[in-house]
Each structure stands twice: as structure tokens, then as C-alpha cells.
Structure to design on (245 residues):
């Protein structure tokens, strides 16, 4: 790697950190295109190739919707085979957390019931649609007028619920954003890979394997307040949040 490339990558992947209890966490998702030893991690945009990488247990990364603009906000989505690669996904001085590391984090901030809310960033302008009127916005009688008002309030209620769902208190400065994920499916019927849930949920890979097909992730979604630790298929694309060694 030449000096110009090294400097560019260092600037792109520099990070701020926050101390939470006895741990020091990155406050941004990982966004590195290379392993610690300098080897390139393949970027895979094609859905069939993404599924193939998961099936063949090969490392891969992508941006949400394959859009580099999303990388500036959410970082990269990695499959677990990149996380587990012996060449090291985390930059020097950092490491990918084990599920025990996430357990320690959640315990320090008061438990799983409210960890999602405390870890998520405060979102002032969540990615939800504006409250638009229905097509029929000129009622012809009092009954229709009441019906339109009911529809408007119902839409407003749903929108407010989404806003509350997306946003957190960021109480400890972890600043988790709802980065979504890349789906993985590959079987005798073919492959199906798509992106989903940006602005709604996020998951962070741990280094902990659950079984031959799954690894454990920290999931922030549920009702917008909870967090959970669950096994997930290794071929999915999820975010990575490192902590200091």
C-alpha cells in the first residue's frame, strides 16, 4: 500500500470513541475496505455473488443499497465471514466485540429492556415520509369530513410511532444509527438478496459463533426501546462496531 492510499484510508476510517463503564467503544460503524494486514476485502454488489460469498464462506462488504452515500452515514455492511477472517477486520488497536462484550455494555446501562433506546442516536429528522393528505381531500358532506379527519389522525399516529421507534436518547454516547441490513438466502430455488430496514433497525455482528450457520448479533429494534442478542445467518450483511483492545 503506497503512502497516499494509507493516508487516505486513515482519514476515511478515523474514529471518535466513548468510554462506557470500563469499555471504550467507537462511536461510528466500521468502514474499512481492507483487512488489518492490508489485503482487500471484496466489495460485492451483485445479489447472486453476495449469496455465493455467504455459501462459500468468503468475506464481503457492501454499502446499503450499494450507494456510497450511505457509507458516509452508516459505514459498511459486512458478512460474518469478514468479521471472522484471520487477517483481522478491526484496525490496529481495536477488536470486534464478542457477545460477552455486548453483555457487559448492556448490563452497565441498565439491562436489555431499555438498552436499545439508550444506545441509539437522537434522530431529529428520521427517514419517514411527510404527512400527506389523502387523494380525496375535498369532502362532500359532514360524514365524509369526519372520515377524512379520522384518516389524517390515524396517519399522524402511525408516523409519530415510527419517529419514536427510530430515535433514541443516546444516553451513553454510543450513537447507534438504524443502518438496516442486507438479506441472504441461497438454496435449491436460487438466490434472493435485498436491502431492508434502514432507518428502522440495526444489528452489530459479534465475533461469537452460535453454530455452523449462525453467529450472534446485538439487535436494536423491538419496540424502539429494547435490545436483544440473537443468532443470525452468517451470510447477512450487518454493521460492525469495534471497541478498544
Amino acid at each position: 500500500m503506497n503512502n497516499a492510499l494509507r493516508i487516505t484510508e486513515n482519514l476515511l476510517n478515523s474514529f471518535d470513541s466513548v468510554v462506557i463503564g470500563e469499555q471504550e467503544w467507537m462511536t461510528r460503524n466500521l468502514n474499512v475496505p481492507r483487512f488489518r494486514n492490508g489485503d482487500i476485502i471484496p466489495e460485492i454488489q451483485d445479489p447472486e455473488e453476495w449469496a455465493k460469498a455467504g455459501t462459500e464462506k468468503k468475506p464481503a462488504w457492501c454499502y446499503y443499497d450499494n450507494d456510497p452515500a450511505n457509507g458516509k452515514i452508516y459505514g459498511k455492511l459486512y458478512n460474518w465471514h469478514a468479521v471472522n477472517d484471520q487477517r483481522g477486520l478491526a484496525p490496529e488497536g481495536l477488536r470486534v466485540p464478542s457477545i460477552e462484550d455486548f453483555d457487559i455494555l448492556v448490563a452497565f446501562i441498565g439491562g436489555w429492556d431499555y438498552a436499545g433506546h439508550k444506545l441509539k442516536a437522537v434522530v431529529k429528522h428520521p427517514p419517514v415520509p411527510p404527512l400527506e393528505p389523502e387523494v380525496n381531500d375535498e369532502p362532500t358532506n359532514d360524514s365524509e369530513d369526519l372520515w377524512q379527519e379520522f384518516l389524517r389522525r390515524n396517519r399522524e399516529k402511525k408516523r409519530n410511532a415510527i419517529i419514536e421507534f427510530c430515535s433514541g436518547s443516546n444516553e451513553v454516547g454510543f450513537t447507534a444509527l438504524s443502518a438496516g441490513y442486507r438479506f441472504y438466502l441461497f438454496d435449491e430455488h436460487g438466490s434472493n438478496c435485498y436491502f431492508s430496514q434502514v432507518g428502522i433497525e440495526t444489528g452489530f455482528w459479534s465475533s461469537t459463533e452460535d453454530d455452523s450457520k449462525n453467529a450472534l448479533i446485538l439487535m436494536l429494534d423491538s419496540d424502539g426501546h429494547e435490545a436483544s442478542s440473537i443468532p443470525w445467518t452468517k451470510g447477512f450483511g450487518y454493521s460492525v462496531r469495534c471497541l478498544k483492545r
Observations:
- The chain has two domains: 15-123+170-244, 128-166.
